[in-house]
Amino acid sequence: MINILIIINTLFLAFLILYLFVYKKYKKTNDNLLSRYDNVYDGKKKASPYYISINNLNDFDSDVVLFGHNKRLLSENFGSDKGVKVETFINSSYLQLLNQSNSEPFSCEYIRIHSNELDLSTVIELESSNANGQSCLIPIKLKDYFSPMQFQSNIIDVNTPIIIDGNTEIRFKLKKKTNITLTLFPSERVNLSRVLKGNSIGVSYAKYTDSIHPILLSFSKNKESIKNKIKNKLNVLFVKIKTLLKKNKIKSTVV
Length: 255
Fold this sequence. Notes:
alpha+beta; 7-stranded antiparallel β-sheet; 4-stranded antiparallel β-sheet; 13 strands
């Protein structure tokens, strides 16, 4: 009986040590992944998003036009109705963003839309046209991207690949006295100055997939891997306990 207690206590201590070791390893991996999220992933930098805030100060629904540098640069209010205020964040201006979209076009596969009064019936029109009169129009219906399972009803994540350049513009109707913010996460961007350093003009960023950054997907996979390792270790430990108890029972019977 005493031998059994010694064996159980020894195995319990071994299990405790194993648990603490795996937990520390898991926590260290978790911290490393979260620190990497703020810098790079898989050799690619995290995209610095473009923030665009649109405020309709009018007492009526108004038209909003974003980008379309070659067509809208000299237009009044850059194509939007009077009373529509378009701003950017982080020490920049919409005029700078508009000009940069022409000299440094970018592709975007993930857009977050936030509004104090989100209208799911809104249809965002993405139109690309050129000087010879050719054009292509793509409608984006917000209701197609809203999930009834999401907790926040004033935010929509639109996973639609688009390219913004001097010939491309975004249009939609904004309700009166409404503010809406678009956050665009570039996946690729053209930067001509890179040629001066012998690099290609294209810059690739870590991409977003299904509204989740790859770092979080990697963290999830790593977490599952650690869980499986713990499960396998415990299974081996329980088999050893069962075997030792069985051997001890046989010895006791013989005695």
